[in-house]
């Protein structure tokens, strides 16, 4: 490139005139491609960061969620975004949550099981230290004779978050880890109910150049499941470091290319605990919800070889038709499947308030979900670049 440039600018004007247009197109394509490739690299860096041990599953122990919120705020500030209200990028709230901060040991018939791989503790379980004989209830369930513990055999270990504590303990064990009917279990597990766990939504905006009170909103939850004991955490790469990576990429883009409408970015906390962050925001909005022209909820964006699905497609047919028209013209995704209304992510409470919203998630790729295998290196990010372009194009058409 430097050689070509030097040749052109060393007095060869005839050559420059002859090849100026294709050369400039090449320059534009080359640097344009690299500019987006850099964004993809930024997305990968974001996912690697948020899934690292430092952030401990962005959950309820070791300040994982708090560290993630600070990271997102720092990125918003670095792009030059402004807070929604006053000078605060965060909207704090609190709730109860059951946590497992330390002891996490299970032995089955004398054999030590590996947390996350061989077993998980049901999220609502209370802590217990016990050695108990097991009685078979059915092919997948065993009960301790003490009446304080139950064993559930599972084809896949999938964890979650609970706001309450049961008066007994459930140990979920992978069917692959059980060779014969188990007879004795030894458990040493500690739980801690946090009655007033503090979390925060992280919000920022790019003010519109002509209609700042009309808004396009992008949302994505940054929390995941956190850790189970002192050694095991759930990385949450696809769910939902991938959505946050897209959110930050879009924030970076719109900060450099402000449109006539305002673009708002909301990173929600506590989605995994029951959509609590988005519920709190819709009940305590920092701007009138009726100002939202359209809302995109970004969740599970790490794949895409099998296309994507859009929740609320059937209740917003015109917008879905526009989305498919753009996709057909540019061939961004292999297909976009319509789905009806569903309370399965942070768009839900906005929909209930009458805000037009889509929740888009990708399909295909790794089956890892709510487990220790949802790691960054398993994310192909097949459709990430094209999804970015699709969001930009859709919003451009929508607001003109």
Automatic annotation (TrEMBL):
Domain of life: Bacteria
GO biological process: proteolysis
Residues in the signal sequence: 1-37
Any one GO molecular-function label of the UniProt entry: metalloexopeptidase activity
Keyword vocabulary terms for this entry: Signal
Entry keyword annotation includes S-adenosyl-L-methionine: no
Ranges where the Peptidase M28 domain occurs: 201-393
Protein name (database record): Peptidase family M28
Organism: Pedobacter xixiisoli
